[in-house]
Design a protein that fits this description.
The protein has 351 residues and is of the alpha/beta class. The protein is built from 18 helices and ten strands. It has an eight-stranded mixed beta sheet with strand order 5-4-3-6-7-8-9-10, with helices on both faces. The chain has a two-stranded antiparallel ribbon with strand order 1-2. Helix 3 links the parallel strand 4 and strand 5. Helix 1 crosses helix 9. The structure holds NADP nicotinamide-adenine-dinucleotide phosphate.
Length: 351
């Protein structure tokens, strides 16, 4: 492990320098990784491992789009593409990449397929941390491990293909075989992680649920809507309101933050923007801090989990989801966004 100074706090990290791909291949040479679920994470992780020379099987229920997608991605029915149970039986590392509500629903049949010394690998601390609610309580004679990419499964694949990687956290919940940590790190390297950092199942799920409800998605959409609505209320056109709220962020400023950090972006904007942003950042931080406090408490107490499991296990889940997504897509703001995007020079050239 390498020691890295994160703003004055020294933490351990693992990269392919400390744990080369060759070592991961050696650790996994007698293993079969069964990737259960071919939704968002499944394809990225399965294809990256396959490309890295690991023996990979996909377990997916038949018939739907995901099954077909696995075929399109080169997995062969009856050979490397199997039913969930068949794959779970054949795998020695069971990569549980069914949706979190689906993990609860399928757990009894997965549990029945686990053999002594298998590793049950998660990409989220959800099912284990909230096991009172999910019922996912693995037997004592398997390793229970986690590699959790900090990004969408889509970028797990696209970054890998571009020669980069998505960072992942990792944890060992139970080390039955005495090899749980090296199995975890080998899996993390084989799926193409940028760097790996240690966590616990509990810390992973708490930070992840806060992050996606907060800055990454929920807060992001909410503050964008608030600003857009205020500009519209005061007579600004949709094009102007959208450009000042979303397009300038995604096409320009956030890219500078990604490359060089927030201070650098502040240093490279106009002095007028800089002065205002330096002053208003404190107001916004203080305004949302109580909301984040409440969010963290609800994540910690399991209330957010209760809501997720209830909503995502409902038979009409997909229809209800579609309705909510349509509400966003068909709002003036995001229709204006579609128009703005269609005017980007690279898209106009394609048209
Ligand atoms: N999405 C991400 O980028 C991301 C990022 C980090 C970690 N994770 C974690 O990775 C894991 C997988 O997440 P995901 O987003 O990839 O999931 P997802 O796209 O929602 O996964 C759907 C997969 O689960 C299957 N599935 C759902 N319910 C099922 C059921 N009752 N029986 C059998 N199969 C069922 C689906 O099959 P059908 O297609 O047939 O419905 C599909 O293969 C989760 O633990 C998640 O928290 C996800």
């Amino acid at each position: 492990m390498a020691k890295v100074d994160f703003g004055g706090v020294i933490e351990d990290v693992v990269t392919s320098q400390e744990f080369p791909l060759e070592r991961a291949r050696k650790v996994l040479e007698n293993e079969t990784v069964a990737v259960l679920g071919y939704g968002v994470q499944g394809p990225g992780q399965a294809m990256n491992m396959r490309d890295n020379g690991i023996r990979v099987l996909v377990g997916q229920r038949k018939g739907g789009q995901s099954w077909q997608r696995a075929i399109d991605d080169g997995f062969v029915p009856g050979e490397t593409l199997l039913s969930i149970e068949e794959a779970a039986e054949k795998g020695t590392i069971i990569q549980f990449l069914i949706s979190d509500a689906g993990q609860m629903a399928t757990w009894p049949k997965i549990k029945a397929c686990l053999e002594d010394g298998d590793a049950l690998c998660f990409s989220h601390g959800f099912s284990i941390t909230y096991k009172e609610q999910t019922g996912v309580d693995p037997p004592e004679n398997v390793d229970v491990i986690m590699v959790a990419p900090k990004g969408s499964g889509r970028t797990v694949r696209s970054n890998f293909l571009a020669g980069s990687g998505i960072n992942s956290s990792y944890a060992v919940f139970r080390d039955y075989t005495g090899k749980a940590e090296e199995r975890t790190l080998a899996t993390g390297i084989a799926i193409g992680s940028g760097y790996l950092f240690p966590t616990t199942f509990e810390n992973e799920v708490h930070s992840d649920l806060v992050g996606e409800r907060g800055v990454l998605m929920g807060c992001l959409a909410g503050v964008m809507e608030a600003q857009y609505n205020i500009l519209r209320k005061h007579g600004h056109s949709p094009s102007e309101a959208f450009n000042e709220t979303v397009e300038e962020l995604t096409q320009s400023l956030i890219r500078l933050v990604a490359e060089n950090g927030m201070d650098w972006m502040y240093a490279n904007c106009s002095t007028t923007a800089q002065r205002g942003a330096l002053d208003w950042r404190h107001r916004f931080r203080d305004a949302v801090t109580p909301v984040f406090e409440e969010l963290f408490k609800r994540v910690e107490s399991g209330e957010e989990t209760r809501i997720v499991l209830e909503a995502n296990s409902a038979p009409d889940y997909r229809e209800r989801l579609q309705k909510e997504l349509d509400e966003i897509r068909l709002s003036e703001m995001w229709k204006a966004g579609a128009a703005v995007r269609s005017l980007r020079p690279e898209r106009r050239k394609k048209a």
